Amino acid sequence: MTVHSPTTPPFRDPHLPVAKRLDDLLARLTPDEKVSFLHQFAPAVERLGIAAFRTGQEALHGVAWMGPATVFPQAVGLGATWNPDLVRRVGEAVSREVRAMHARDERVGLNVWSPTVNLLRHPLWGRNEEGYSEDPKLTSAIATAYTHGLRGDHPTYWRTAPVLKHWLAHNNETDRATSSASVRPRVLHEYDLQAFRETVEAGAVAGVMPAYNLVNGRPNHVSPYLRSQLRTWTEEDLLVCSDAGAPSNLVDAEHYFDTHEEATAAALLAGVDSFTDHGTDATQITARVKGALEQGLLTEADIETAVRRQLSVRFRLGEFDPHYDPHRGTGEFDTPAHRALAQEAAEQAVVLLKNDDDLLPLAPDTRVAVVGLLADECKLDWYSGSLLHRSTPLEGLYERFGAERVEFAEGVDRIRLRTAAGAFLHVPPTDAPDAARGTEGALDPALLSGRTDLPPLTTDATGTEFALVDWGEGVLTLRAPDGRYLSVAEDGHVRASADQPGGWVVQETFRLEPHQNGHLLRHLGTGRPVSVAADGVKVADAGEIFEVITVERGEEAVARAAEQADVVLVIAGNDPHINGRETEDRTTLDLPAHQQRLLRAARAANPRTALVLTSAYPYALEAPSRLPAVLWTAHGGQAAGTALARVLAGDISPAGRLPQTWYESDADLPDLLDYDVIGGRQTYLYFEGTPLFPFGHGLSYASFGYADLSVRVQDGTVHVGCTLTNTGDRTADEVAQLYTRAVDPSVTRPRRELLAHRRVTLAPGERTELRFEVPLSAFEFWDVAQGGWRLEQGPYDLLLGASSEDIRLRTTVTLDGQAPAPRSVVRRGLEAADFDEQSGIAIVDRTKTAGDAVTPVDGGSAELVYRACDFADGVIEVTAQLAGEGVLELSLDGGPTLAALPLPTLTADAYTYTTLAAGIVTEGVHDVHLRLRGPLRLAHVGFTG
């Protein structure tokens, strides 16, 4: 029996079960203290010795926003490694740095909002860089590894507490706070929920963050799936943290609730435990919670449930057991091991897409021209930390080949801007210190722009020659000769003051707009044109008309460098803060026109030209067949340049694999807001066209042989084995990928689907035996006819190879399961959203708390098809639950209308349903067709015999 000190409360006793400690602590908190804990910035409770706590520390690929830290490759780059062991080690390093930084500065939180497990369904999504893959199996494998690294391996105490983002079906920035993803049940269960589920079930997740958008007409912050799905996957108390500002959006942007008290209560009851709103000001959230209590919308028990979940995480983080917490003394920060790991991760993320005539690797005596807008850049993104170390492709190649063998041309257009009066824009000299640089040259993102200690631009007779980069769609940056970007501060003046474009609202982007006999230079951050005033150049309501004088075209410098080289490397891609980022989706897959011109100029001057893409997302390429070699890597963090140079030189063989499909053109893409991956034939799972580069693709400098495929089914598991041999002449990694395909399914199934993968290193001639154990549940699909998972009996192809299209071994196995059966509609009826096919339908919320209904898009007409409906011995009546206004028509097998159910008068609101009935006489098995005409909501159809 534990004996307590009279001065030590039970919640401080590490020998007691956590549940009892939570009970004790909750009993000691006052109602007001409990309410105060619901805001992101929970205050200290000094009388109990409880410190302040905040949810939320960004750590997507290193500690973000809190100053210098080790910067690893972007998440999509970590996904491209296909290496869970590596990603786990990255997670460990990141969590150790979180702890080390927290020890110095308690503003660095231990509840980390990472990783992002939203699937990369659509490559134009602005946040593509934040996800791992378009495939739920690969995404969950990488996310599980990262969360295990973040959590640590102590059985009791967590190093950090990971929260997954963003629940649920979130793939658009356009109208992200008001748009609704229409997600049919099969897509919901087989695709969007799957990555979350497998990661949560792996046991290293502290919670989730709901997304800004709505799903099926209902905001994610009141998602019923938090209760019906998420909380059933684990016995841990999961913490649900709102996204920033989203609680207010429920009223202000989405108009889903009339009052903030009603909205706050609904979110808390749905499962939100921590409200991120109004920054550090907790007063508005606490007032709303108290108002909801006074109105009877919440009870103190509801408050206590949410607070308990938050405190549960704090107990796991060791906050109340400082003498037992094994992570408290962690001081591992910017260690040699972390630097080496950043380089290893960057190396493993490089994907060799094409290598004709063995252009790569480069011989040691190769004369290399390195050209392009990203050749001497090490770009950061919104969720990067500040760089302690920096390596660009140019620097890496200088280091590897020697500066004398490397020729550089950035390829920017060099211009001067002349006013109507004949003067030129001029950057005045300054003696101001480089305030944006701190320890060891690290960039402080808070000082990248907005400086007012530098003089604004002026005009003079000769002016300044600016480097102009057009990033596509007319969005450009202008850079002064000293490397500073033109930026606009709060006072409206234009200064050469930023090291890089950045910030939540980028202040370094402009657009040249034809106007009269010249151009207006419009600043995109403010939307105002640039004007010349007596106190310096600034943005104003009326802008100066500039003549653009081109001093040199970028392609001219590129051609000069390319002509003298043995091999040309065109380093192209994106700036992660421009044209595709959080708040902004891309509009095209195309490489920006400026970079296409540079590529054409290099290729015309030297056919031995390789394209090296450094980007946060896929591109479509103009005439890729004319390029002998193409590589891709995500922005690779602090060691990107060194890693790329080592791959190009053949010091290591590339083994990254594409985590998403690269399409040939925009025509291959669905609408950004079409979330139906099945009906829209999206991702490699369903896409029926020819991709530019397929999912899982990646070449090597070695070659590998696959042989001896074996398969057996035993104890609920499919055991697959093969022999893998390095048949090349150098040590290299291979990523073996196992896929399946249902041969004769009763419903649409993926054309192939990843079951498992393995990244292995083999020396020349080395052979290894690969073994995969796949549970039979991996072959199941969500059967809308039964409302659950079903393994369908029949043959399944097993496909093993180097990508989703490069299959080396195959066999077919017959699995026992359930035979297809018609829907028993007399017993169960038809839930409206459980259709097999649809045209013109949007899924919407049946009520504000639960359930789905369907309605025609924009109130027009739509059709639903339900296959193989069994009317048994006969029915005589059809009933339908309807709201709104319009007509529901029923037919069988595409024949004439058998019943019409009109709702001529608009119901009281969209959630007031009326049950209508009509006579119908039929029996046997038929396909049911339902046509909806007008702004009608259909929830359920029933049949009686």
TrEMBL record:
One of its GO terms (molecular function) is alpha-L-arabinofuranosidase activity. It comes from the Bacteria. The keyword Transferase does not apply. GO terms for biological process: arabinan catabolic process; xylan catabolic process. Keywords: Hydrolase, Signal. Residues 828-944 form the CBM6 domain. Belongs to the glycosyl hydrolase 3 family. Catalyzes the hydrolysis of a non-reducing terminal alpha-L-arabinopyranosidic linkage in ginsenoside Rb2 (alpha-L-arabinopyranosyl-(1->6)-alpha-D-glucopyranosyl) to release alpha-D-glucopyranosyl (Rd). It is not able to hydrolyze alpha-L-arabinofuranosyl-(1->6)-alpha-D-glucopyranosyl (Rc). PANTHER family: BETA-D-XYLOSIDASE 5-RELATED, SUGAR HYDROLASE-RELATED. This is Exo-alpha-(1->6)-L-arabinopyranosidase. The lineage of its organism: Bacteria, Bacillati, Actinomycetota, Actinomycetes, Kitasatosporales.
